[in-house]
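anyone seen this seq b4? input:
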Amino acid sequence: MISKLRIFLEMIKFEHTLFALPFAFVGAILGAVTMEKRLPDWSECGWILLAMVGARTAAMGLNRVIDKAIDKRNPRTAMRAIPAGLLKSKDVLIFIVVSLVLLFWAASQLNSLSVKLLPLAVFFLVFYSYTKRFTWTCHIVLGLTIGLAPLGGWVAVTGSVTWTSIILYLTVALWTAGFDIIYACQDVEFDRKEGLHSIPARFGISRALGIARALHALTAAGFALLLVLTDLSWWYFAGTIVAAALLFYEHRLVKPNDLSKLNAAFFTMNGVLSAVIFVFTFIDLVVVRTW
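predicted toks r here
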């Protein structure tokens, strides 16, 4: 079982939980300070962490099970654990059930609204993996799924949903959709051959990268708008400038005729961006105000 767990964690790229986790804590800190003039306590942070681990692990596990036949036919993904025979679907389903139990348990320790919104979150976790079978807006659906991280963090500490939390949710959704479009560019030919849907397969790589740039421009605008809607100050503003620069650099790495740096743009830049927004939000709302 330990060996299977190790293979499972490698299959779902567990370390990439760091993509969305910082935004969950941004939502928690921003919500607590904006709505309740306090900081999240340690127990809230712990339950948010467990909920995020459960949600992301379940989502990726479900994706691998649902897409196992597609992954087997795609040369890029044929060596993933399930198509390569390293794990059986029933083994992965055990880990998925455990992850969902962890998610429900963590949410139940927070507040009633967190529990009430869980069915919606689980729906998105399952639904996303099917969308590329029938719509090229699958990237938007993924964005709306990952965007639940900051919204969930906000709800976890405030027990409410506000327009500010919706702006944060949509901003992260746009960011996710943009980088998922970039990532999908490497599978254009395979997607077209298999009848799968994506923005690159529908519009071509050049236009897809243009759409991703537009979504990331809106992402930068969304981060800036939060400065107006909340008590955030110039420390956070400095973070948005750095984030905008990272988005600009990400798009400089990927060109329609050269996708060789796509992994650097997808994995490295996006991991750094989420950490940057969290760090500067933390400095602004926690460190500076504590001083």
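The chain has a mean pLDDT of 91. The first helix runs from residue 2 to 11. kinda curious what u guys think
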